[in-house]
Amino acid sequence: MLFLAESAQFWHRTHQLNPRFRLAIVRLNLRNLRMTLAATKRRSTTDRGRRKSNRGGKIVRNVARATRSIAAPDPLMVPTRWVKFIFAIFLLPACAILSETFFTVFARATVTQRLWAAEEFWFFSLGAVLWLIAFLGLPRPIVLYVFGHELTHALWVLLMGGRVSRFRVGCDGGHVVTNKNNFWIALAPYFFPLYSILAIAAYGLLSLFVNVQPYGRLLYAVIGATWAFHFSFTCWMIPKNQTDLSDQGTFFSLVVIYLMNLLLLSVMLILASPQITFAGFGTDLLTNLSNFSQWIADLFESFARRE
Fold this sequence. Notes:
Layout: H1 2-14, H2 19-56, H3 80-111, H4 119-137, H5 142-159, E1 164-170, E2 173-178, H6 183-191, H7 194-206, H8 216-237, H9 243-248, H10 250-272, H11 278-306
Antiparallel strand pairs: 1-2
Helix pairs in contact: 3-10, 3-11, 4-8, 5-6, 6-10, 7-8
C-alpha cells in the first residue's frame, strides 16, 4: 500500500512537468515497477518451495550428526571366499570317490543284476524322458520353477532357525527376505529337488489312509519327471550368472552342487534297486577311498624318490 501511495503522488507531480520529460520518468518508473514485482515473485516462489519441502518430510531436532568411519582392512584377515575356494579344492577328491562309486554300482546293477529290467527303472526313466521332451519342445514353466526355487530357500531358512519376512514370486523372478543366510540356504534350490520330495511325502501321507501300493509305478514316474525338472532347470540356470552362486564363490558353489546332487542320486539308486543296499554301497565307497589314499601315498613316495 505504501508503494502504491508513493506511485500516486509521483504520478501527480509528473503531470506538472514537460510532456517529454514526463514520458521518460513514466518509463523509468514502469521499469522499476517490473523489477520490483519480479523480485517479489521470485521470493514467494522460493518460500513456497521451502514450505512444501518442510511440510512433506520429517524434521528431527536435536539429533547428533552421525559420522561414518571405515575400518582399515586387517592384514591377517583371510576373505571368506578364499577359504571356500580352498575348501572346495579339498572336496574334489570326495567328488571323485563318490562318482567312481556311483557309476561302479550303477553299472554292476545294470549289467549283472538286471536293473534295467525293473519296473522302477523303466517308470522313472519314462517320467524323466517325458519331462525332457516337454522342456525342450514346449514353453518352459518359469513361474513354477521360480516358485519352487524361492520356496526351497524359505524352507531351508526355517530349517536353519531363521525367519522369512517376505516371499515374492513373479514371471521376472522372485526373492525371499530373511534374517539368516548361509551357503546351504543359498545353494539349496540347486541340489534339493523340492517337487520330488513333495511327491514322496504326499505318497507316504496317503499311504496312512488308503492303499497306494498299486500306484507305486506312478510314483516312480512322477519322481522321474520332477527330478528331471529339477536337473534340467538347474543346468539351464547355472550359466545365467546366478547371484546365489557368485555370492558364495562360483567354484565352491559348483563343487557343492555337484557333490550334493550325486549324493542324492546315490540314495535314489539304493532305494530304487532291491539288489543295492546302503551297506553294499558303503563298502564300495570305503574300497574306493582306500584305493585313492593308496594312490596319494604312492604319488608322494614317487616324488620323494626323485628328490
